[in-house]
Amino acid sequence: METAARGAPRGGGGERLLGELEARVQDVVRASSWWERHGLDCSILALSLLALPPGFLCLRSENVLVFVLGITILGVCHYTLTVKGSHLATHGALTESRRWSKIWAHFFVEVCTAFPAEDARYGHVKMHHGYTNVLGLGDSSTWRLPCLNRYVYMFLAPLLIPIITPLVAVERLRKVRLGAALRALGLISLGLYSHYWLLRHMSGFRSPASALACMLCTRSLLAHPYLHVNVFQHIGLPMFSRDKKPRRIHMMSLGVLNLPRLPVLDWAFGHSIISCHVEHHLFPTLSDNMCLKVKPVVSQFLREKQLPYNEDTYLARFRLFLSHYEELLVHAPPITELAGLQ
Ligand SMILES: [Zn+2]
């Protein structure tokens, strides 16, 4: 584990380095238009909403190819709205207006994803981003299911994500204040019921069971890469202890990994989750398109300062997790000693 830390300079200066990088990134942001900052990503989300009616109508067809096309459209749109949409909305990266950021978070996280927006914000923004790879805080341990064997975890468990998500949501709502819990419950039920209603009335599914099976099918279309990417990006990289966590720039440079660009996943999950995860962890309020735009600046800066810039392919990570499953996803990860970076 210590090898990954070797490239990092010893001694302080973390704040100064981050300040220097922030200034370079700010220059890029200031020189960017509204279209680049928000417009492009908002258009992808709008297109995903507009593609829903044709997707539901394709499922009326007797033709197998048209039916499969309908499932694909609805599945990809579901992931674009729930992963890309929820992620950007939770970070307030869709708009500069605070009010609209809140509204989008309720829409994408609660109506589309069936998860409480407040809980998503706390778990993702505050804990995962604030304490990336810090054991017991933002260490991605929610993704560990040590009771499952490697094949069940990597191949079968993802299919259960659409069922587990609303169940976890209900459990989490018990801890939220009553008003927020009722609002979240109402919006989650609205999202799930409208999906079911559209399948029965627009797509023409005759029985409740077939409509529910179709819901499960589209909602788990990209569940495999979703689960895999979430563990590939952080697990297996240096882990930090609560009292000796490194400075922000070292925490992100050591504890975050980028995958190469993958067209379907770039579209449905967003660059900030796939090829610009390091950039996203350093500048979480930038949209997907802006993360892609600042990527050359960030990667060059980290290399210039001899800080790690972790990159690996999906296939290489997949093989690593399958072969080192026990070590990476079953046992508690060891803490990396980072002298001088705290
Ligand atoms: Zn994030």
From TrEMBL:
Name of the protein in its database record: Fatty acid desaturase domain-containing protein
Keyword tags: Fatty acid biosynthesis, Fatty acid metabolism, Lipid biosynthesis, Lipid metabolism, Membrane, Transmembrane, Transmembrane helix
Transmembrane segments: 64-81, 151-170, 182-199
One GO location term (cellular component): membrane
Highest taxon of the lineage: Eukaryota
Fatty acid desaturase domain ranges (all copies): 65-311
One GO term of the biological process aspect: fatty acid biosynthetic process
Entries under InterPro entries matching the protein: FA_desaturase_dom (IPR005804), Fatty_acid_desaturase (IPR012171)
Pfam families listed in its UniProt record: FA_desaturase
Molecular function terms, GO-annotated: oxidoreductase activity, acting on paired donors, with oxidation of a pair of donors resulting in the reduction of molecular oxygen to two molecules of water
